[in-house]
Design a protein that fits this description.
alpha/beta, 117 residues, 3-stranded antiparallel β-sheet, 5-stranded mixed β-sheet, Hypothetical Protein Mth938, Chain: A
């Protein structure tokens, strides 16, 4: 089997996660996080939809990490994003981390919004 080096030219990958934190670009973010091509920071949860709406011209969709297991995304949150033309793909946060890394390595315009595990 041939292995290929993965390069992240446009964004930093998610390096790791654990109980209550995410590690991105050597920085540990406690609690929930949002990561996109321009960086990563803490995220206040479903009430903080404005942060994502502010990125609408830079992303096509978000990977919504819903915690340890996949759970439905709050309806008002999803509706606000979809009205702005931002798709929402819910999945467990560990899955969202892995999927984000694959998509940004392909140069996709995506953000990951992650509830802590």
């Amino acid at each position: 089997m041939q292995l290929s080096e993965v390069f992240y030219s446009e964004a930093q990958p998610i390096e790791g996660y654990g109980p209550g934190f995410f590690r991105i670009g050597g920085q540990v973010i406690e609690g929930s996080a949002i990561i996109h091509a321009e960086g990563a920071r803490s995220w206040a949860g479903y009430g903080d939809v404005e942060t994502i709406l502010g990125m609408k011209d830079k992303i096509d969709f978000i990977l919504m990490g819903t915690g340890e297991t996949m759970a439905p995304v709050e309806a008002a949150f999803r509706e606000a994003l979809e009205e702005a033309g931002i798709g929402v793909e819910p999945m467990a946060s560990p899955t969202a981390c892995r999927t984000y890394n694959v998509l940004v390595s392909e140069g996709r315009r995506v953000a990951a919004v992650l509830l802590a595990v």
